[in-house]
Amino acid sequence: xxxxxxxxxxxxxxxxxxxxxxxxxxxxxxxxxxxxxxxxxxxxxxxxxxxxxxxxxxxxxxxxxxxxxxxxxxxxxxxxxxxxxxxxxxxxxxxxxxxxxxxxxxxxxxxxxxxxxxxxxxxxxxxxxxxxxxxxxxxxxxxxxxxxxxxxxxxxxxxxxxxxxxxxxxxxxxxxxxxxxxxxxxxxxxxxxxxxxxxxxxxxxxxxxxxxxxxxxxxxxxxxxxxxxxxxxxxxxxxxxxxxxxxxxxxxxxxxxxxxxxxxxxxxxxxxxxxxxxxxxxxxxxxxxxxxxxxxxxxxxxxxxxxxxxxxxxxxxxxxxxxxxxxxxxxxxxxxxxxxxxxxxxxxxxxxxxxxxxxxxxxxxxxxxxxxxxxxxxxxxxxxxxxxxxxxxxxxxxxxxxxxxxxxxxxxxxxxxxxxxxxxxxxxxxxxxxxxxxxxxxxxxxxxxxxxxxxxxxxxxxxxxxxxxxxxxxxxxxxxxxxxxxxxxxxxxxxxxxxxxxxxxxxxxxxxxxxxxxxxxxxxxxxxxxxxxxxxxxxxxxxxxxxxxxxxxxxxxxxxxxxxxxxxxxxxxxxxxxxxxxxxxxxxxxxxxxxxxxxxxxxxxxxxxxxxxxxxxxxxxxxxxxxxxxxxxxxxxxxxxxxxxxxxxxxxxxxxxxxxxxxxxxxxxxxxxxxxxxxxxxxxxxxxxxxxxxxxxxxxxxxxxxxxxx
Length: 710
Known about the structure:
Layout: H1 10-44, H2 50-53, E1 58-61, E2 67-71, E3 78-79, H3 84-87, H4 90-100, H5 112-125, H6 135-143, H7 151-167, H8 170-180, E4 187-188, H9 190-198, H10 207-215, H11 229-245, H12 251-258, H13 274-283, E5 289-291, H14 296-313, E6 318-325, E7 331-335, H15 363-373, E8 381-384, E9 403-406, H16 407-412, H17 416-426, H18 428-437, H19 463-474, E10 478-479, E11 499-500, H20 504-515, E12 529-534, E13 540-546, E14 550-557, H21 569-582, E15 629-632, E16 638-639, E17 652-657, E18 664-667, E19 670-674, E20 680-683, E21 689-696, E22 702-709
Parallel strand pairs: 1-5, 3-4, 16-22
Antiparallel strand pairs: 1-2, 6-7, 6-14, 8-9, 10-11, 12-13, 13-14, 15-17, 17-20, 18-19, 18-21, 21-22
Helix pairs in contact: 4-10, 6-7, 6-8, 10-11, 11-12, 14-21, 15-17, 15-20
């Protein structure tokens, strides 16, 4: 029988109890102090530096979101924004999370199981097999980079990781990590690394590429591909071996990936549309992502075209090209020079925005206003013979004259004398103001008024303004301002009020004439309406054309304005224009059909005054009474048209005095009949708005009024 344990005296038991309480109290106080100190330390860390960490390189993208150009950050680092869901290969993400953080989607920033596993592996093998840091902890380290590797530093990462998880979603954490992860040198983030090492976005990566990108951030400087490719190769293979061991990758796939070589040189960052990107950077401030209306595929092919053709043209010559969507006015491609980095060709000067002499490229608008005024028709006859306007005597490019030709042929052959004769009738100031109204800013010499010489290039204009004006012809007389930067708060360009260039019938007639212009040897007939131009002294060669979808403008010359003997628009610029249309990859679209009211007839079927154009000086008149004068309606008057119960407008009377019979009435450039023997006629008024009413007599003399119909 065992002896019973001695019972401690009451005094001894009370002493033990007091000591236990004392130890507990001291422990509690120590715990409170430690907790308070830890809390104070956490508070001292301050808020998460999210704003600084979210700073990225400014990127310029095209209309479909494809990268055109990126600009390095102020400190020289490349850090591109990334969306893991849409812009990163799922295979890479699977590999990354399997290697770095298996429970990323479930833990709260710190993974105790991963920390325990890492400690056991280190204890059993004597070296680090896998790290215990989660993606969130690594992000915390990247947000606040520190060199020391200590327990306090690791504890700081753990605290920050918990804070990050509370403030950001898992998708945001992954995106931020993929933007900040180091890949050697000044490369940060998966996109910058993939572009620099593989020359492509990380949306589609091979297994070898994905494994390499998983391995590099662990020791980015010691595994830099441009310095230590062997170390990078070995690190990639270790990633693949672990993935095979964990059952993430099959042995066959890993063996094939292991045999792939690693890149040894960095590729340059893409620089597409550099002039457009520079202009966007100058106008849009503090925006990390700028979206342009450009199409990267078309931009790339036209840049190559300009580069090749400039080399073929000779030294110091550059080529500029702009492509515009007719309907919206969006710039689809802008090639400011043949080579942005070629100093001999002043490559950084954007020649699409440079003011140059347009040569004959303004002639279609002279003819368009003449068609609109109703004193000439494409099938009218016009004289191409020596003529003098005061002290100005225009001559043709080849110094010869064609005699009497149809107006259509005069424009297609770009004859100078007929164009100046029509401009004399239209009025140089009116042409200038109409083009300005449609967005074409003409630059005249200082203190000089618009004159007849502007019809042959005696004025300055930019290639982009010419493209806007020609797109207005393609749109049947209504131009749209060009748009290149797509701002979030900006209305779609198609919703803006179009700019008036000329009447629909006149614009259609111009396009129909230009469609028949003989193309260069590499061009197709009757598919593209185009015009060429050559400035005085062979300094600028131009060609601008359009189909039913796109307008393209081409300029060739020396940016410094020096002459280039033999530089002619038809041989230097027109072939590039037709090549540009061919490289759009689309069959030329048909031009719009003839609008209602357009007069389509041969010369013999035209009203007598329209069969032949006579310059102002040849108008037959022996006295002021013989000139036709519109007595009603008066110029500038407002006509309130009576309408029936069905909404049909009552005819509007037109009364004329003077002139030689027969007298033809033209409404908005379209013949509406002849004046009767009582010198009046009832005319069906057009819809509400401004209308141009012209009366032409048998000698070609005319009078015009502009009225407003309501």
